Amino acid sequence: MLVPRLARAEVVAEVGARFQAMGRVRIEAAFPEAQAAACLTALRGSEHAALQRVDPAAGFQIWRFGFVPGVGCEHPLCELGRWLQGDAVGWVSALTGAPLGAELDPMLLSDKACKAAFRDGYDARAETVGRAIGYQVHFTPATWPVEWGGHLEVLAGPGGEVIERWAPAWNAIDVFELRGGVSWRRLPMIERHVEGYTITGGFHAAS
Predict the structure, then answer these.
(1) Residues 9-38: pLDDT tens digits?
(2) Residue 168 sits in a domain of what CATH number?
(3) Number of folded domains in the chain?
(4) Which of 6, 48, 151, 207 is deepest in the core (most CB within 10 A)?
(5) Domain housing 54
(6) pTM of whole model > 0.85?
(7) Using H for helix, E for strand and C for coil, what is the string for the chain?
(8) Which residues pair with 185 in a beta bridge?
């Protein structure tokens, strides 16, 4: 599934060094372009349902779609899902230096980034109980300025200052530490008519 160069030992070592230094790493041009385009087309054709919570302290409005990869199915999302729950486990274990296992729940979640989507401050670890390493797979065909909203913010704590912002990306994988350190996130409301998709999941520590 990955582009071949990302499986080379020297590339895994280089990516792993960046992960160890920062606690996260972004890998761009992760999949062959034709496969990434097929995944984007499939996500655009999927019904992302609106989920909302009106809460002055911790509200959100997101559009989400869940799917379970089919065994032997050639649908682009099924192929991606089988890779995330199969070969990706060993690959991420190698670059993070952490023995990992796939999640037991086979369902994968896609969030659609579009106008009016937002999430107030939340603890990423509270949502990912049992995960040691998290990931996000990005299929955003065009980036947009931070002023438009939609750049994931890493916070110093609940209501704390913004430490860094993670921009949406095309054909990219973010791998990030969940076992310690900063865990608070926020997605400022998207103000423009833009479009992007992010598949989020993780791996637990192998026993």
Answers:
(1) 999 999 999 999 988 999 999 999 999 999
(2) 2.60.120.620
(3) 1
(4) 151
(5) 4-205
(6) yes
(7) CCCHHHHCHHHHHHHHHHHHHHCEEEEECCCCHHHHHHHHHHHHCCCCEEEEECCCCCCEEEEEEEECCCCCCCCHHHHHHHHHCCHHHHHHHHHHCCCEEECCCCCEEEEEECCCCEEEEEEHHHHCCCEEEEEEEEECCCCCCHHHCCCEEEECCCCCCEEEEECCCEEEEEEEECCCCCCEEEECCCCCCCCEEEEEEEEEECC
(8) 122, 154
Write the CA distances from 34 to 1, 43, 97, 135, integer angstroms: 11, 14, 30, 22
Do 97 and 175 touch, CB atoms closer than 8 A?
Answer: no
**What is the per-residue pLDDT across 53-92, written as a single tens digit (0 to 9) for each?**
877 667 899 999 999 999 989 999 999 999 999 999 999 9
Q: How far apart are CA 155 and CA 65, in angstroms?
A: 26
Distance from C-alpha of 158 to C-alpha of 120, rounded to nearest angstrom: 10
Encoded tokens for 124: 């990423």
